[in-house]
Each structure stands twice: as structure tokens, then as C-alpha cells.
């Protein structure tokens, strides 16, 4: 069958081709596939809406449980204030300006700390990724040091940096540094050998291999590291503020717990969670944009 | 009289054969793979010897795993751990070079580049202006019939289309030796036949030396000046078949069929 087609095609008269060394190439005789504009179906947004609804199911159920629990008096109001009360406290926090004061203090710390930590992390990961020697020197020590949690460094850091802002920056930066460094290094280790060979075949210089193959294939994993690093930074921020500060969301939680104002604790927790989630969503959005040229990462069974 | 007759340009051309036109020479190529951990060595190529004239079209057929891709990798210069010598224009090859191009068996496109940008990779270090590069890339995308997909990313096109992009990328910088590793394997019969003809046409125009690996004996006889039949364990040349038929060849010609059946019978013996 295929042979018959091949023969038929061979027999088709080919116009005598000019064999002079002209570079112009003949047009494709077969009809190439064409793009056709298709009106967007309504199916897509329906599934999207369904997915969003599913995502809200659990939080709404928990909120309902919380509401009923306090209504029925399963737990004392001192331990678990009712949702309406927490909502009201949240409103007060906003209108008094306390929320903004504490949230901006926290955000500033996390942004500065994260920027320092992730910049160092990317630089460190790049250095180790580009040079095996640097990696051999640094990685074992790095791996040993990262086993020590933030709280473990705390007493030492307190002596070294005092209780002021630098302490917080250093600890938050440290939290972000670890995942960013490791993800950056990992990205370098996972550059597909097949693509590096393509670069060699087309005479890429060492610099072109780095800028045109290694970095593009490392961008997405590095970004995943940044996202992970931010989560770590945000989590350690609250810990650091709980222990040593006079403003910030972590401080708000610690302070109101001492005063036994659990509604305020709950309100602050909600704010911490919401800000963290929003920023993580932002990262995810950018990550998806960066991945636009790639296949969807993994398949799903169902 | 005849002694004083001036030489025609053709004679001059014949008299001054360029010293670099000595083609590609494979001398006693042997290749072993040592697997990590195990002490055993895998003997993949055994004493492969082949002289390829400049501008010659060599096709290689052979059972899966007999070392065809490995041989192409050696010629390309990606792997320098082998015994024997590979000479191009009488000089041993050292590493990769722009004068040797390849279309890999797996298409190996860059996932973050569009079809157009992927083809342009072939011209990255070519001595052309940006406008010339754009025009050449456009022509080659048209050659493989993908002009409506220039902005698509590799994951948005089919396997056969990706293979065609890889073919365009391999051809675009017109290397003097082009290595093709089953370039038409993933294509439908129609597209394959058309690209076989286009490849032959480009080869006739540009005098590229072709080393073309294929599983399709029909294709090997259709395209090759010589068909190299390889056999496995270890990979070596079993036979070299001259295809002395005028081009373009007619697949239903008795001589064509006889040659094809001859090569096919080698496979029957092997298995
Ligand atoms: N990097 C490697 N390490 C170890 N063994 C290898 C490696 N590459 C290839 N081989 C072995 O070499 C042999 C030949 O492989 P090769 O890819 O050259 O075969 P091939 O003739 O191209 O086969 P196919 O027609 O299926 O593409 C195989 O047995 C394979 O297992
Ligand atoms: Mg192969």
C-alpha cells in the first residue's frame, strides 16, 4: 500500500529542476495542515467553575462546623470564639489601622529577607552548577548546615545580631536560601544531555550553551525553588516574630495570646494564611507563564 | 592539432581536484561500551571500514541495536572514545564541527523555542546576516510544509511534525556531510515519499555527502549510491550493495525490485 503510493508519487511528473546552485527551494506541493479558528466552547469555563467550587467545599464546611460548634457551645467561647466575633475583630483591626501596621512590618521583613536569601541562593546554586570544583568544595558543608533548623540558630543569632531587624532579615534569608540553592543546583544537574549534544552539534560556544540551553531549561526549576523559598521565609517570619519583635503579624499572635484574646489570634492567623496564599498564587501564575512553551508537567490518573 | 587544443573548463576542473575533496573515511572503527558497576563490556561496533566519496549518498540498513546510531555519533564527534580513525578530507575529525550536521533519531527540539526558533538554531553560528537567516529559515520551514506552525511550540505539534522540524534544522545550514538517523521514520507514506524526493533534490543541488540510516529497505535503495547492510553482535558491515540505477529511480523497475529483494534477503538470513 505504502509502496503503491510511493510509486504513484514517483511517476508524477516533476518539473525539470534547475540544478544550478540556487538556494531557493521548491514550495511544499502537498497541502499543509491549516489552522482554523474555532469559537471557544462554554464547556471550558463550566469545568473551571466546577473546579473552583470544589476547592471551596472544604473551607466552607469547616467554617460551618466552626459556626455550629460555637453556637451549640461544644467549646467555650474563650477557647474558640465564634466566626462572627472573629470577623468583627478583623474589621476592627482594619479600621484601627493596626492590621496595616503589623502586616506591612511583616511584609517588609519577609521581602527583604527573601530577596537577600534568594539572591544568595541563586548565586550559590549557579556557582555550584557551573563549576564542579565549587560544588565539591561547598555542597557537603552546605548540606550539613541546612540540617540545623531556624530555631537552632536563634540563640547564636541573638548574640551575633542582637534583637533588632538584622536578626529577622538574617533568619528569614537563611530560610529562603536553602531551597533556592538546592533547586538551582538541581536545575543544572538536570539539563537534558540530549539537548546539550544538539548545542555541540551546532557549534555552540561554552557561553551559548549556558545562555541558550542550560539557563532556559533551568528557569522553571529555579522558579519552583523561589516559590518554595518564599513559603519557608513566610513560615519562619512568623516564628521569628513570635519570639522577638514588637510589631508584625507574628507579634500580634503572640501578644493577643498573652492577653487571652483568642479572637485576635484567630484574626491574625487568617491574615497570615491569606497573605501567604495570595503570594503563593502569584508565584504559581508566573511559573505557569514561564512554562508556557513546555508540555504540561505531569499527567493525572483521574 | 589535437595536442594544441586548449583544455576545456571541464578538463581543468578534473585536473585540479581539490586536495580537501577526499571525502569521509572510516578506518577500523571499533566501539565498546563499559557499563558502570559491571565488568562486562558491550562490543557495539567491530572493525567498521568504509570510504565515502565526497557528495556520495550512503544509506545504512541493519537490525535494531546493531550500532547505526552509535556510528553516526562517532562521525559527528560527540563520542571520542573509540578505536580506529575517522578522517574527513584526510584530516582526523576532532569533536563536532559545523561542516558535519545531523538529524537525530529522536527529534531533540528545544521545548522552550517555537518551530521557527528551533530551525534557526541550525544557523546560530552561521556567517549570515539576520535577514538572510530569517529568509533561509522560512524557506526550510516551507520545505517541510510547516509554514502555518512557525509560532507553535514542540509540544503543540505531532511527532511527525517535530521530526520534520528537526529535518529542516539539519538541512538549514547546508553542512558538507549530513548524517540522518531514520529521519522519516515517524512520517506517513505520502510525506515520506515527498521528503525523500526533496532530500534527493537538495543532495543533487548542493553535493552534500549523505549518510542516511533507515529501516526502510525500499528507501535505502531509492536514495543510496551504495547501501551498507550492517549486522549485529557485534555491529559490523555485512555487505555493501552498489545501486547503479539512474535517478530519479523508479520503484517498480525490475532492477530496483531485484536489488531491494536482494538486500531484504540479507535480513531474512540474519533472523
Ligand atoms: N550510552 C550507551 N551506553 C551503553 N550502551 C549503549 C549506549 N548507547 C548505545 N548502547 C548500546 O549500543 C548498541 C547499539 O545502539 P544503537 O543506538 O547504535 O543502535 P541502532 O542500530 O541505532 O538501533 P535502532 O535501529 O534501534 O536505532 C545497543 O545494544 C545499545 O544498547
Ligand atoms: Mg538508532
Automatic annotation (TrEMBL), chain A:
Location in or out of the cell: Cell membrane
Gene3D superfamilies: MetI-like (1.10.3720.10)
The entry's keywords: Cell membrane, Membrane, Transmembrane, Transmembrane helix, Transport
Primary localization class, coarse: membrane
Domain ABC transmembrane type-1 residue range list: 103-283
Transmembrane segment boundaries: 49-68, 110-130, 142-163, 169-188, 233-253, 259-279
Domain of life of the organism encoding this protein: Bacteria
A Pfam family matched in the record: BPD_transp_1
CDD domains: TM_PBP2
Topology in membrane: Multi-pass membrane protein
InterPro entries noted in UniProt: MetI-like (IPR000515), MetI-like_sf (IPR035906)
PROSITE patterns named among the record's database cross-references: ABC_TM1
Similarity field: Belongs to the binding-protein-dependent transport system permease family.
This protein's name: ABC transporter permease
From TrEMBL, chain B:
Keyword Cell membrane set for record: no
SMART domains linked: AAA
PROSITE patterns linked to this entry: ABC_TRANSPORTER_1, ABC_TRANSPORTER_2
Pfam families: ABC_tran (PF00005)
Keyword Zinc included in the entry's annotation: no
Membrane-spanning intervals of the chain: none
A Gene Ontology molecular function term of the record: ATP binding
SUPFAM superfamilies per record: P-loop containing nucleoside triphosphate hydrolases (SSF52540)
Domain of life: Bacteria
Domain ABC transporter: 24-257
Keywords carried by this UniProt record: ATP-binding, Nucleotide-binding, Transport
Matches recorded under Gene3D superfamilies: P-loop containing nucleotide triphosphate hydrolases
Family under the similarity heading: Belongs to the ABC transporter superfamily.
Protein name per UniProt: ABC transporter ATP-binding protein
Amino acid at each position: 500500500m505504502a509502496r503503491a503510493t510511493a510509486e504513484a508519487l514517483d511517476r508524477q511528473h516533476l518539473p525539470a529542476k534547475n540544478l544550478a546552485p540556487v538556494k531557493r527551494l521548491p514550495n511544499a506541493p502537498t497541502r499543509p495542515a491549516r489552522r482554523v479558528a474555532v469559537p471557544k466552547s462554554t464547556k471550558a469555563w463550566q469545568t473551571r467553575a466546577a473546579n473552583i467550587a470544589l476547592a471551596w467545599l472544604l473551607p466552607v464546611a469547616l467554617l460551618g462546623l466552626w459556626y455550629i460548634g460555637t453556637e451549640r457551645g461544644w467549646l467555650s467561647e474563650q477557647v474558640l470564639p465564634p466566626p462572627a466575633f472573629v470577623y468583627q475583630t478583623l474589621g476592627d483591626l482594619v479600621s484601627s489601622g493596626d492590621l496595616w501596621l503589623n502586616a506591612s512590618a511583616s511584609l517588609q521583613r519577609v521581602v527583604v529577607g527573601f530577596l537577600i536569601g534568594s539572591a544568595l541562593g541563586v548565586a550559590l546554586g549557579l556557582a555550584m552548577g557551573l563549576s564542579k570544583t565549587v560544588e565539591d568544595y561547598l555542597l557537603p558543608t552546605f548540606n550539613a548546615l541546612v540540617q540545623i533548623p531556624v530555631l537552632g540558630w536563634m540563640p547564636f543569632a541573638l548574640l551575633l545580631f542582637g534583637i533588632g531587624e538584622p536578626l529577622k532579615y538574617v533568619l528569614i534569608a537563611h530560610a529562603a536560601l536553602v531551597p533556592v540553592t538546592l533547586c538551582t543546583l538541581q536545575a543544572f544537574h538536570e539539563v537534558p544531555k540530549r539537548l546539550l549534544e544538539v548545542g555541540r552539534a551546532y557549534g555552540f560556544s561554552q557561553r551559548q550553551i549556558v545562555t541558550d540551553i542550560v539557563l532556559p531549561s533551568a528557569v522553571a526549576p529555579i522558579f519552583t525553588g523561589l516559590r518554595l523559598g518564599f513559603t519557608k521565609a513566610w513560615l519562619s517570619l512568623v516564628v521569628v516574630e513570635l519570639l522577638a519583635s514588637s510589631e508584625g503579624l507574628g507579634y500580634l499572635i503572640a501578644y493577643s495570646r498573652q492577653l487571652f484574646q483568642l479572637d485576635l489570634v484567630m484574626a491574625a492567623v487568617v491574615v497570615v494564611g491569606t497573605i501567604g496564599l495570595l503570594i503563593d498564587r502569584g508565584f504559581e501564575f508566573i511559573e505557569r507563564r514561564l512554562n508556557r512553551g513546555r508540555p504540561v508537567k505531569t499527567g493525572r490518573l483521574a | 592539432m589535437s595536442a594544441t587544443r586548449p583544455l576545456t573548463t571541464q578538463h581543468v576542473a578534473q585536473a585540479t581536484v581539490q586536495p580537501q575533496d577526499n571525502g569521509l573515511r572510516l578506518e577500523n572503527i571499533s566501539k565498546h561500551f563499559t557499563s558502570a558497576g559491571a565488568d562486562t563490556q558491550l562490543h557495539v561496533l567491530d572493525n567498521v571500514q568504509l570510504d565515502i566519496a565526497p557528495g556520495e549518498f550512503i544509506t545504512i540498513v541493519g537490525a535494531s541495536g546493531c550500532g547505526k546510531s552509535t556510528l553516526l555519533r562517532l562521525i559527528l564527534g560527540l563520542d571520542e572514545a573509540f578505536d580506529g580513525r575517522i578522517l574527513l578530507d584526510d584530516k582526523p575529525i576532532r569533536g563536532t564541527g559545523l561542516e558535519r550536521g545531523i538529524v537525530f533519531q529522536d527529534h531533540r527540539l528545544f521545548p522552550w523555542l517555537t518551530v521557527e526558533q528551533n530551525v534557526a538554531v541550525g544557523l546560530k553560528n552561521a556567517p549570515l546576516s539576520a535577514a538572510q537567516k530569517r529568509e533561509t529559515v522560512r524557506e526550510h520551514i516551507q520545505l517541510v510544509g510547516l509554514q502555518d506552525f512557525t509560532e507553535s511550540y514542540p509540544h503543540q505539534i505531532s511527532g511527525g511534525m517535530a521530526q520534520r522540524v528537526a529535518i529542516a534544522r539539519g538541512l538549514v545550514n547546508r553542512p558538507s556531510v549530513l548524517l540522518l538517523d531514520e529521519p522519516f521514520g515517524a512520517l506517513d507514506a505520502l510525506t515520506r515519499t515527498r521528503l525523500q524526493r526533496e532530500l534527493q533534490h537538495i543532495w543533487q543541488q548542493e553535493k552534500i555527502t549523505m549518510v542516511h540510516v533507515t529501516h526502510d529497505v525500499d528507501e535505502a535503495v531509492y536514495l543510496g549510491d551504495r547501501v551498507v547492510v550492517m549486522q549485529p553482535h557485534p555491529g559490523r558491515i555485512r555487505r555493501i550493495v552498489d545501486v547503479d540505477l539512474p535517478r530519479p529511480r523508479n520503484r517498480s523497475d525490475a532492477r530496483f525490485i531485484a536489488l531491494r529483494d536482494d538486500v531484504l534477503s540479507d535480513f531474512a538470513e540474519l533472523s
